[in-house]
Amino acid sequence: MERHYVGSEIGQLRTVMLHRPLLSLQRLTPSNCQELLFDDVLCVERAVEEHNQFAQLLRDQNINVLLLGELLAETLQNTEARDWLLSAQLSDYRLGPTLASPLREWLADLPADQLSRYLTGGLTWQEIPETLLKSRTISPMQSPFITRPLPNHLFTRDTSCWIYQGVSINPMAKPARQRETDNLRAIYRWHPLFQDNQYINYYGNEERRYDHATLEGGDVLVIGHGTVLIGLSERTTIQGVEFLATSLFHHQQANKVILVELPKHRACMHLDTVMTHLDIDTFSIYPEIIQADMPCWMLTPDGKGGIKHHSPRPLVALLEEALAVTEIRFITTGGDIFESEREQWNDANNVLTLRPGVVVGYDRNLRTNEKYDKAGIKILTIRGDELGRGRGGARCMSCPLERDDLEGVRS
Ligand SMILES: NC(=O)NCCC[C@H](N)C(=O)O
């Protein structure tokens, strides 16, 4: 039986969820890409090739790769899941009852893989039968889309994140990503892979307005030994973190949450764009944003079902204590100030660790990759000239479902 458990950032990676994008990227244009959180349009064929190369590299390392689109199609075989998801994504309130109801009926009859494509890639007015439009006198065609594409499903890291024995299905901060959460809720509720499993759902699976209590997986680093490192970023708020921390403590899955305050801007939208864990005592950091002595907060259980906020202490001290190591090594982004700013923007810090000291990253980040190499970190490179335009690297594009803890990992 599959065991979904993520015990660390650096233990052997065993199962990971990726999303191979196609339709959503075909629909990215200069007029909509910024709103959809991409900095440019992509050469789709090359982006798909790059993604295939990434997935193949992981498979070659004996890592089990699950694809979100396939999981969603399998989930949609279940009528209850299909009805729930169609109501969530195409509600009467979104489209008006006259159109919404016949549209949902038409979609419900489609083959599951086609429906999965529309629910991730978006649905246009041109794709639906004309008879459906006749039911309504005025058609709301200001945009080509009935539902907009979700190109950021590519970054599976963010929408749901596994922390020890459970998962948080994240309420996303930006409107362009909020419908992703419904797709993930359906997968975790109805896909057979998650049915027989005992796993905890920490946060985000309720049908409510989460308001400011947003949280994204790129801000969550499961550094091990019951500690979670979380970035307070453009996307993850203290409100969201308080809910997650309370749940982690309640389920006895963590006993410490360390908080890193980040500037609220796009270049460092999540903690993992400026900091990742490479080996037991080694992190990559972008020094413009992360410094060893920066004061960080800590949350622990208060013994009464709530959380206790501690006074700030230097990041390095908190990490050394949490990881039980005498000295943390920080590998800073490579090159001069111009090169390092460019390489950070192109996700040099955002690498995916496969096992202690072995990471995957984009080949274009020459200066930083050289530094990893010199520091004894093995970097397996992939091309990412197209994928990187979405502003995410190998860590962002992967959601680990099964990874070893720090047991047996030595400094
Ligand atoms: N963990 C990450 O940093 N994910 C990258 C997300 C990029 C995406 N275009 C976004 O703006 O949400």
TrEMBL record:
<dbReference type="GO" id="GO:0019546">
    <property type="term" value="P:L-arginine deiminase pathway"/>
</dbReference>
<comment type="pathway">
    <text>Amino-acid degradation; L-arginine degradation via ADI pathway; carbamoyl phosphate from L-arginine: step 1/2.</text>
</comment>
<feature type="active site" description="Amidino-cysteine intermediate">
    <location>
        <position position="396"/>
    </location>
</feature>
<comment type="similarity">
    <text>Belongs to the arginine deiminase family.</text>
</comment>
<keyword id="KW-0378">Hydrolase</keyword>
<dbReference type="Pfam" id="PF02274">
    <property type="entry name" value="ADI"/>
</dbReference>
<dbReference type="GO" id="GO:0016990">
    <property type="term" value="F:arginine deiminase activity"/>
</dbReference>
<dbReference type="InterPro" id="IPR003876">
    <property type="entry name" value="Arg_deiminase"/>
</dbReference>
<dbReference type="GO" id="GO:0005737">
    <property type="term" value="C:cytoplasm"/>
</dbReference>
<keyword id="KW-0056">Arginine metabolism</keyword>
<keyword id="KW-0963">Cytoplasm</keyword>
<protein>
    <recommendedName>
        <fullName>Arginine deiminase</fullName>
        <ecNumber>3.5.3.6</ecNumber>
    </recommendedName>
</protein>
